[in-house]
Write a structure and sequence with these properties.
heterodimer; A: 528 residues; alpha/beta; 7-stranded beta/alpha barrel; immunoglobulin/albumin-binding domain-like; 2 domains; 10-stranded mixed beta sheet; 10 strands; B: 308 residues; alpha+beta; Immunoglobulin-like; 4-stranded antiparallel beta sheet; 3-stranded antiparallel beta sheet; 9 helices; 38% helix; elongated; disordered N terminus
Chain lengths: 528, 308
């Protein structure tokens, strides 16, 4: 039996922007949630359960962001998800008939039918339509540590010109966490890993002990951390920062030689939404008849070719197992190398978008399951750990201020501040200032005014989502993101004037409260 | 550009910020509403022509037309979507109410049926009519600055320095590096309301001052420089491992007890092995011998979004 010389810590960041349109069924963007539940969240829960049943001791950290929690807890979206599943089951049922003449395809159709049927069973019968409880269970039995995030994933390095708006993102993030998990979060995933030292005091104020940063958040820290990203640092204000390991990130993320590019894995971009006969698939694509992915995909990556081979479930599993072994060997070698230099066990931090696992990399949850089993059963030199456990075991931490950084392209703020989206920032800043003005003007508001002030806070928070800026930069679904910014700034501004003029339109308030209904317990005084 | 009174601007702003109309109104007044809304859009795109001091000018016209066209499509899409959905919901509501309220008079329920849900349409305010300068760091060496001068302040300058003050002077940004104690000036223009600025030094405190330099001096306008506003102060991010720090001690904090301890650097086994503290970069090079270390840092990490 090898001596345990170090630790590996997986952190999955589960986030989706708050998308909730009770006014229409036509918003395609709502399906991001349904796809993520079916392809990422339920597969993760299935695999955690398997590990639990098999007696495998594993550790994982997940941030589940407040907007995602709010959507998972939303009755309308739960109903809509069930509707989505029923459509998926109906479509895969049709596919079983359509592909009857092709044994390989037919097997896959059956697979999708079974899988979506099981999703429905799990969602309705096991989780009672609320999968938050599923994640909470694994936190309660000590396998999973759930951390929080900024209230609406607002990007701190842009918001902090008004620090109160950063404080509110943290405060509401922590409050939402407490509501769902019945305890305080020990860690936070800074939205987009956007670190600014100015936020530290607020993180501490709300009891946050640690953050996750991009690699150079640690490597470029001041003074230079002596163990690089292989040990956390603590800021002068007392926030512990764990930095992303470069090597393991590259193995998974890299679009060229990363694991998800294996030729046996499911091809993301081939989908019957694009491939099937138009009249046949029309009821299952966008309302306006535009072809969109359905989630039923029959091909594997195959290679750098347009001619794709059918997906083979067993081959995909084989590849995942091989890669899990490779990952294990790499970490073993890395830890062997590092341990000889360090006077405490190194920690290799592996943070990823949760949606990479399953949604983008279909086999990702299975890979994780196999990897965790291997780590538990194989004779390797490391253990899995959560950042909290590491802090508890090794509380003596080097003092250094992390570098202002993010995990976006090139490591700073270019993704959320560039010539495509910089027109937004002044509006976010003014709305932030106006919110603080309102909170100062009316600290003890009651009744309708209080409701209006709380709704103002919701609108401001929703406008601040980093997602809109990201989508504009990215160039897909841009119209939707721009509309969301306009809607939230528009609703905020209208209410701002109504409150100041003491002419609150109750119907309007009710209408937007129905649409933007997250954080029902918010208190606008956080801006005071 | 003809100037408007404060009240006019305020009311226009309010109007632009919030457009509320019933479905009926939206359809009958479509044309007039549209032409009203387009005004601020045009203004906005004209004035937001972006420039980077080192970068070459981009074709402003193509950017403008692109922006306009997207805005229009958004507006159209929203209007149609909302119109169809709002009728659906209102219909549902009335059926519900008529079944539960059996005793209410028929007249009332008829009234309810006529009630049409509001259609929301918003455009971002063209400006907020405030004097402001804000600076953000896009990268360790690129600052983003935006600004505006309120109508009241404009009036004050015109009263003090003459009616043609804004024609007779040009705007400048003065960049203060408060860490290294130097400043430099960049000439901008009145068509822009934001600017990207390259600076030489990362990890420094910066603050930006907006001011004006006279082009033509006259009796009223004798000064060499007129101050307008100062931005927030911000620190630009660091962009390197701080090799050159002379540090003899490493400080540790016990996060459970809060106790701070110090260790001389040369007693740490890691350092002994590595020779000196700032060889971490070399360690990476050693570990990733086959990789270009620079490239590892430039990894294009996907952000947290499903539509990427």
């Amino acid at each position: 039996m090898q001596e345990k010389k170090g630790y590996v810590s997986f952190v999955l960041h589960a986030h989706l922007p708050f998308i909730h349109h009770p006014e229409s069924d036509d918003y395609l963007e709502e399906s991001w949630l349904y796809e993520a539940i079916s392809e990422t969240y339920l597969p993760l829960l299935r695999n955690f359960k398997k590990l639990e049943d098999e007696g495998v001791d594993f550790r994982l950290t997940m941030s589940i962001t407040p907007p995602l929690l709010s959507m998972l807890d939303n009755k309308l979206l739960q109903r809509k998800y069930i509707k989505y599943l029923k459509r998926q089951i109906e479509l895969s049922g049709k596919e079983i008939k359509r592909t009857a003449g092709d044994e390989r395809l037919n097997k896959l159709s059956h697979y999708y039918y079974d899988r979506y049927s099981d999703d429905l069973r799990l969602f309705k019968d096991v989780f009672n339509c609320n999968i938050i409880q599923g994640f909470k269970h694994f936190q309660d039995i000590g396998k999973l540590e759930i951390i929080t995030c900024g209230a609406t994933h607002g990007y701190f390095p842009i918001l902090y010109v008004n620090e109160k708006t950063v404080r509110a993102q943290i405060a509401v993030g922590v409050q939402t966490y407490e509501k769902y998990f019945g305890r305080k979060p020990r860690g936070i995933w800074l939205p987009e890993c956007g670190y600014i030292p100015e936020a530290d005091k607020y993180l501490r104020e709300f009891g946050i002990q640690y953050i996750i940063t991009e690699s150079h958040g640690i490597l470029y820290a001041d003074p230079t951390p002596i163990y690089g990203t292989f040990a956390p640092i603590v800021s002068p204000q007392g926030v512990v920062a764990f930095g992303r390991d470069i090597e393991s990130s590259k193995q998974v993320w890299s679009s060229i030689d990363g694991y998800p590019g294996d030729f046996n894995y499911r091809e993301f971009y081939r989908d019957i939404g694009y491939d099937a006969d138009y009249d046949y698939i029309k009821p299952y694509i966008a309302h306006d008849g535009v072809r969109v992915p359905t989630g039923i995909k029959y091909y594997r990556i195959t290679g750098k070719t347009e001619f794709k081979d059918y997906y083979n479930l067993q081959w995909a599993k084989d590849s995942a197992e091989k890669q899990a072994g490779h990952f294990l060997d790499c970490r073993t070698a890395q830890i062997n190398h590092l341990a000889s230099f360090m006077d405490k066990p190194p920690i290799i931090l592996c943070p990823y978008d949760a949606e990479l696992y399953g949604h983008w990399w279909y086999e990702g949850p299975y890979w994780l399951y196999i990897l965790f089993k291997k780590i538990y059963y194989d004779d390797c030199n490391f253990k899995l750990i959560t950042p909290s456990e590491y802090i508890d075991k090794y509380p003596d931490i080097q003092v250094a201020t992390p570098c202002r950084s993010s995990w976006g392209a090139n490591g700073y703020s270019e993704v959320w501040l560039n010539q495509t989206n910089d027109y937004v920032h002044r509006h976010l800043h003014v709305a932030g200032d106006r919110m603080c003005e309102l909170a100062t003007l009316y600290p003890n508001a009651k009744g309708l005014k209080k409701k209006a002030l709380n709704q103002c806070a919701r609108e401001l928070l929703l406008a601040q989502s980093s997602d809109w800026l990201f989508i504009i930069t990215n160039g897909t679904m841009v119209d939707y993101a721009k509309k969301r910014i306009k809607d939230h700034i528009g609703r905020f501004t209208k209410l701002y004037y109504q409150i100041k003029d003491d002419k609150i339109d109750e119907d309007f308030l009710k209408d937007i409260n129905k649409k933007d209904c997250l954080f029902p317990d918010i208190d606008y005084n956080i801006y005071g | 550009m003809p100037r408007k009174t404060k009240e006019q601007i305020e009311s226009e702003n309010k109007e632009n910020e919030v457009k509320k109309a019933t479905v009926k109104k939206a359809s009958t007044n479509k044309k007039t509403a549209k032409s009203k809304e387009e005004k601020p859009v045009k203004k906005e795109t004209k004035s937001t022509t972006k420039k980077t001091t080192t970068a070459k000018k981009k074709s402003a016209t193509s950017a403008t037309s692109k922006k306009e066209s997207t805005k229009k499509t958004v507006a159209k899409k929203t209007a149609t979507k909302k119109a169809s959905s709002s009728t659906k919901t209102s219909a549902k509501k009335t059926t519900k109410k008529s079944t539960t309220r059996k005793t209410t008079a028929r007249k009332k329920s008829v009234k309810k049926q006529v009630k049409i849900e509001p259609v929301e349409y918003y455009d971002l305010p063209y400006r907020y009519n405030q004097t402001v300068v804000k600076v953000l760091a896009q990268t360790p060496t690129t600052l983003f600055i935006y600004w505006d001068i309120s109508d009241n302040d404009r009036k004050k300058y015109e009263e003090e320095f003459g009616e043609d003050f804004f024609q007779n002077s040009k705007p400048v940004l003065i960049v203060y590096n408060d860490t290294l104690g130097y400043k430099f000036e960049v000439e901008i223009n009145d068509f822009a309301n934001s600017w990207y600025l390259h600076v030489a030094d990362s990890k420094c405190d910066y603050r930006i001052e907006l001011g004006r330099r006279p082009i033509v001096k006259n009796e009223k306008l004798k000064n060499d420089y007129i101050y307008v506003a100062t931005s927030n102060e911000m620190e630009s991010p660091n962009d390197r491992i701080l090799f050159n720090k002379e540090q003899k001690m490493v400080y540790y904090k016990n996060v459970k007890t809060g106790a701070v301890t110090e260790k001389p650097i040369n007693t740490l086994s890691f350092i002994t092995n590595m020779g000196k503290i700032y060889d971490i970069y070399d360690l990476y090079k050693e570990m990733y011998q086959n990789e270009d270390v620079k490239e590892i840092y430039d990894l294009k990490n996907p952000s947290s979004h499903p539509s990427s």
